[in-house]
Structure formats: C-alpha cells, structure tokens
Design brief:
Shape: globular
Strand order of the largest sheet: 1-2-3-4-5-7
Distance between the termini: 30 Å
Largest sheet: 6 strands, mixed
Number of strands: 8
Number of domains: 1
CATH topology: Aminopeptidase
CATH superfamily: Gcn5-related N-acetyltransferase (GNAT)
CATH architecture: 3-Layer(aba) Sandwich
Helix content: 25-40%
Length: about 160
C-alpha cells in the first residue's frame, strides 16, 4: 500500500475532505451527497478513512440496510487518483470488514465487480435468493461470521440510496 497510510474512523472534522475526495473520485457529487444523507439519517454505521500526513486518500462507507436480519451495505469506496493501484482500497476494505466483524454484523451486501469483491469473500450466489432493485450478477453478499441467517427475503439499501 501507499507509504504508511493511517487507517481510522472518520470524524466530523473529516467530512469536508471526504466530500472533496468522493466528488473527485466519481466525477460528480452523487456519492458525496449520499454519504451526507446517510449521516443525517443515522444510517451510516461506519465510515473509514486512509490518511497520509493528515490528508485523506481513501474512504469507505458501510450503512444500515433493510433486510430479514441485521445487514450492512458497502459503498461508496473511493481512493484519490494519485494513490490508486497501490493497495489502498484493498487495505481499507480489509480493515473495515474486520471492524464490522468485531461488531458482529451477520452480513454485508455490495453492488460491484465480482473479481475485486470476490477477493474479500463476497459472492453473488449468496445474494441470489434476495429480492432487491439491484439484484443481478453484480449484487453480492458476504456472510461475515459464518453463514447468512436467512437465504431469501427483501433487502434494500438505506433510503438515501434512492436519490443516487
């Protein structure tokens, strides 16, 4: 990974820099607005940052989902352009997953690239039985502490995602 990034939970002081990072990474304000809305609604369970010399170079969000059991939705995850392809996203994701595992969340869902997220244990076959507006081959689940408590039902991201 890039030169000794410090991994830590976000603080309110970080919010403007996180907003700037998300806007730059996605070339739009949708993801930055999403994170603000998740915070405001109380649905952001975990926001993690990677920082070097005090500058935030990476961010990951995990938010509450509506599901048949306690579950989180992963995303957005972003890395500053100058630090991409250096392992920042992977390191930040491993660290974040360990954090929520400690908090005993049974499952995490993500909509994303199977080749990338598969390295962390996400599987599209675990999400197949769940109804979601995002259902399909890129919708994946991770059983955080063993098996999923259910194999079917309705899962929805926090309401803030409806604005994306």
């Amino acid at each position: 990974m890039t030169r000794s990034a410090n991994l830590r939970e976000e603080t309110p002081h970080d919010h403007p820099e996180i907003t700037d990072l998300l806007r730059a990474a996605f070339h739009r304000s949708g993801e930055a607005d999403l994170v603000k809305a998740l915070r405001k609604a109380g649905d952001l369970v975990f926001g993690g940052v990677a920082a070097i010399d005090g500058d935030i170079i990476g961010y990951v969000a995990l938010s509450r989902m509506r599901a048949p059991f306690p579950a989180l939705g992963l995303g957005p995850i972003a890395v500053a352009a100058t630090h991409r392809q250096k392992g920042v996203a992977s390191t930040l994701l491993h660290w974040s997953l360990a954090h929520v595992q400690k908090d005993q969340w049974p499952a995490i869902f993500v909509l994303g690239d199977g080749a990338f997220y598969g390295r962390f244990g996400f599987r599209p076959e675990l999400a197949v039985g769940f109804s979601s507006p995002y259902a399909g081959p890129c919708f994946q689940a991770l059983a955080v502490n063993g098996e999923l408590p259910a194999k079917e039902g309705q899962v929805d991201y926090a309401p803030a995602f409806d604005q994306l």
